[in-house]
C-alpha cells in the first residue's frame, strides 16, 4: 500500500462516519500519537479513493481501511496489557491470604473465651478492614485530596493501585516478622500442638492487606473497566478476573517450585520446622520489584482520550 509520509493526522487519517459509528454503539475517540505504527490501518493512501470512504460501515472491509476510532480502540487494549502483567505479583501475594495465612493461623491459639475460632475465619479481618476503610476513603480522604489535586477521584487510578502495591510490601514484611516470632516460640514442636501465641497476632498483616486491596483491587477493577473501549466493557471485567486467576495459579506453581528446591522446606507439612518467613520475605521483594516496574509503566501510560463536552456540543 502506498502511504504518504510524513503525514498530518487531521488530513490523512480516516475519521469515519459518526452516524454509522453510533449505529454500531461506538463513540468517536481522539487520536493519540502513541503506537503510531498502528495508525497505518487508518491512513488514506493513493489506492483508497473517496468513494470507498463513503461506503456503508457494514460493507466496508476492515482489512483495507479502519477509522481512527477503531485504531484507538486497539491501542487501548495494547496499552492496558503491560499494566495487566505488572499486577500479577500483587495477585500472587494476596493469594496467600486464603492459603498460607490460614495454615499459619491453624498453629496458633485460637481461643476466644470458651469459643475456638476456626482457622479459615481469621480472613474476616481482611473483609472488616475493607468494609470499614472504603467508606472512609470515599467520603473523607478523597474530598481532602481532591482539593489539592483537582482530580475527581483525588488521585488517578494508577496512583491508587501504586499505593496499594506499596502497602502490600509492608504487609508481607509484617507477615515475615510475625512468622519469625511464631517460629521462635514454636521451637520445632509438632504442629499438632498449638503455639503459645494468640491468633490475633495475624490481625496486623490481614488489616494491612485489607488496606492494600482497598486501593489496588478496587482501583484495578475500575481501571480495566474504564480504559477498554466502551463497547468492550466485559473485556475489562475479564482482564481484572484473569489477573486474579493467573496470580492464584502462579502462587501454587511458586510454592511447588520452592518446596522442591529448598531444604528444609520453606513451606513444609510442619510449619514449626519450616521457614515460612523466608517465603514472605521473597514475596515482599517480589512486590517491591513489581512496584518499581509499575511506577515506570505508570509514567509511560496514557489514559483513554475523551472528547471534551465543549467539543461535542460544537460538533
Q: Quickly give the CATH architecture of the largest domain.
A: Up-down Bundle
Q: Could you say which structural class the secondary elements and strand pairing correspond to?
A: mainly alpha
Cα gyration radius (Å): 26 Å
The helix fraction, in percent, is 55-70%
What is the tally of beta strands? 4
**Helix/strand order, N-terminal first:** HHHHHHEEEHHEHHHH
Provide mean pLDDT, rounded.
Answer: 82
Placed side by side, the strands forming the largest sheet appear as 1-4
CATH superfamily of the largest domain: MFS general substrate transporter like domains
Q: Work out the strand percent.
A: under 5%
Separate helix tally: 12
What can be said about the biggest beta sheet?
A: 2 strands, parallel
What is the name of the CATH class of the largest domain?
A: Mainly Alpha
Stated plainly, the CATH topology of the largest domain is called Growth Hormone, Chain: A
State the end-to-end distance. 32 Å
| Low-pLDDT residue intervals, each spanning 5 or more residues | 1-6, 308-315
Shape verdict:
elongated
**Count of folded domains:** 2
Subcellular location: Membrane
Family: Belongs to the major facilitator superfamily. Proton-dependent oligopeptide transporter (POT/PTR) (TC 2.A.17) family.
GO molecular function, one term: transmembrane transporter activity
Keywords: Membrane, Transmembrane, Transmembrane helix
Keywords:
315 residues; mainly alpha; Growth Hormone, Chain: A; 2 domains; two-stranded parallel ribbon; two-stranded antiparallel ribbon; 3% strand; disordered N terminus; POT_fam
Describe this structure in words.
It is built from 12 helices and 4 strands. A two-stranded parallel ribbon has the order 1-4. It has a two-stranded antiparallel ribbon with strand order 2-3. It is mainly alpha-helical and 315 residues long. The chain folds into 2 domains: 9-72, no CATH class; 87-300, Up-down Bundle (Growth Hormone, Chain: A). 59% of the residues lie in helices and 3% in strands. Helix 5 runs antiparallel to helix 11. The radius of gyration is 26 Å and the shape is elongated.
Amino acid at each position: 500500500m502506498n502511504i504518504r509520509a510524513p503525514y498530518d493526522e487531521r488530513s490523512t487519517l480516516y475519521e469515519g462516519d459518526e452516524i454509522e459509528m453510533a449505529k454500531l454503539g461506538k463513540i468517536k475517540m481522539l487520536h493519540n500519537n502513541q503506537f503510531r505504527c498502528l495508525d497505518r490501518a487508518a491512513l488514506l493512501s493513493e489506492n483508497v479513493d473517496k468513494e470507498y470512504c463513503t461506503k456503508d460501515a457494514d460493507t466496508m472491509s476492515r482489512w483495507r481501511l479502519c477509522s481512527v476510532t477503531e485504531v484507538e480502540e486497539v491501542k487501548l487494549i495494547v496499552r492496558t496489557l503491560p499494566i495487566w502483567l505488572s499486577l500479577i505479583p500483587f495477585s500472587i501475594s494476596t493469594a496467600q491470604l486464603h492459603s498460607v495465612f490460614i495454615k499459619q493461623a491453624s498453629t496458633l491459639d485460637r481461643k476466644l473465651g470458651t469459643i475456638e475460632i476456626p482457622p479459615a475465619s481469621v480472613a474476616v479481618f481482611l473483609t472488616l478492614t475493607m468494609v470499614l476503610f472504603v467508606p472512609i476513603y470515599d467520603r473523607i480522604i478523597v474530598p481532602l485530596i481532591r482539593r489539592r489535586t483537582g482530580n475527581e477521584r483525588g488521585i488517578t487510578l494508577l496512583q491508587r493501585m501504586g499505593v496499594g502495591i506499596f502497602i502490600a510490601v509492608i504487609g508481607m514484611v509484617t507477615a515475615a516478622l510475625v512468622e519469625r516470632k511464631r517460629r521462635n516460640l514454636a521451637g520445632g514442636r509438632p504442629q499438632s500442638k498449638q503455639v503459645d501465641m494468640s491468633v490475633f497476632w495475624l490481625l496486623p498483616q490481614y488489616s494491612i492487606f485489607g488496606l492494600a486491596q482497598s486501593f489496588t483491587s478496587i482501583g484495578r477493577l475500575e481501571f480495566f473497566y474504564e480504559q477498554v473501549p466502551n463497547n468492550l466493557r466485559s473485556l475489562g471485567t475479564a482482564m481484572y478476573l484473569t489477573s486474579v486467576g493467573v496470580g492464584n495459579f502462579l502462587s501454587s506453581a511458586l510454592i511447588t517450585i520452592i518446596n522442591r528446591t529448598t531444604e528444609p522446606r520453606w513451606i513444609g507439612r510442619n510449619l514449626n520446622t519450616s521457614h515460612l518467613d523466608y517465603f514472605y520475605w521473597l514475596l515482599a521483594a517480589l512486590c517491591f520489584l513489581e512496584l518499581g516496574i509499575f511506577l515506570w509503566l505508570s509514567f509511560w501510560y496514557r489514559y483513554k482520550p475523551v472528547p471534551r463536552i465543549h467539543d461535542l456540543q460544537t460538533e
